[in-house]
Specification:
Layout (H helix, E strand, L loop, with lengths): L1 H11 L13 E29 L2 E11 L2 E19 L2 E27 L7 E29 L2 E26 L6 E25 L4 E12 L2 E4 L8 E28 L1
Antiparallel strand pairs: 1-2, 1-3, 1-10, 3-4, 4-5, 5-6, 6-7, 7-8, 8-10, 9-10
């Protein structure tokens, strides 16, 4: 409830004391900036293939790790618009395309250890332990939206919007650990690093206001909520010392985002 009040306040306060004068039909361009908060449900499905480099032996172990952290990513957002809107009787109908640059990010650590048996010419029992630093970032978006609204007062328009959005999410992972078995005199360290990215589709719904400052210049404020479709970011890497550690699989993420934006719109021509 408190968060909802803050959003409404951020949208309405800028209009206090503004004197509207004109309608806002026509072709327009615009730019806005604000903040974005994304909740990310991450489902990890990792597989580690570990090959031990011992002369005369070819032995491989496979270990799977599954976890499901729940994250929150906060950052800035800048967005650009190109659209057309028109009053039809008392109602406003608009269509716009948009693109944005984002900086929302989150990070978390994972710790994993396991004991397992090698399969190969000989049978060995091995142990390993590792830690990972995982970072995820919402980088940019593209989309299209339909707007439906109506005049609240002279020069002030309220609207709701629904549209399609496509955003790029990037993930980077740094990991390190150690491995041992009864043929090794001491534990051997290993490390790995990997990145992956994927574009996610979603539905963007929002509410906002347009206030005439002059005949062609308008102040715009809006709050959006985005539902993204679940998508896998594939990760694969190799590396190590005296062994090879390959991380296969990925992170299956399901983001949901809230953003508040303030900006300006310029009518290229009005009708």
């Amino acid at each position: 409830m408190n968060f909802s009040k803050k959003i409404i306040t951020a949208l309405v306060i800028p209009f206090v004391g503004m004197a509207g004068c004109c309608n806002n039909s026509g072709l327009y361009i615009g730019a806005s900036g604000g903040v974005e908060n994304i909740r990310i449900q991450d489902s990890q499905a990792q597989q580690f293939n570990i090959t031990q480099a011992i002369p005369g032996l070819d032995i491989t172990a496979v270990h799977r790790q599954v976890s499901s952290p729940d994250l929150s990513a906060l950052g800035g957002i800048g967005r650009f618009y190109l659209g057309y809107g028109k009053y039809i009787q008392r109602f406003y109908l608009g269509l716009e395309v948009f693109g944005g640059i984002k900086s929302s990010r989150a990070s978390w650590d994972t710790v994993d250890d396991a004991t397992f048996t090698f399969s190969g010419p000989t049978t060995l029992v091995g142990q390993y332990a590792k830690t990972e630093k995982i970072k995820i970032k919402d980088r940019n978006d593209l989309g299209v939206a339909l707007m439906l609204g109506g005049a609240i007062s002279r020069g002030l328009l309220g609207f709701v919007k629904v549209g399609y959005i496509n955003s790029e999410f990037k993930m980077h992972i740094d990991g390190s650990g150690s491995f041992n078995n009864n043929l090794l005199p001491a534990a051997r360290p290993f490390s790995f690093s990997s990145s992956g990215s994927s574009r996610l589709n979603g539905i963007d719904v929002g509410i906002g206001f347009l206030q005439n400052l002059t005949k062609r210049l308008l102040f715009r404020s809006e709050a959006d909520y985005v539902f993204y479709k679940k998508r896998n970011i594939k990760i694969s890497t190799g590396g190590g010392t005296g062994m090879v550690v390959i991380r296969e699989g990925g992170e299956k993420i399901t983001p949901q985002g809230v953003s508040v934006l303030l900006g300006l719109v310029y009518l290229l021509y009005a009708n």
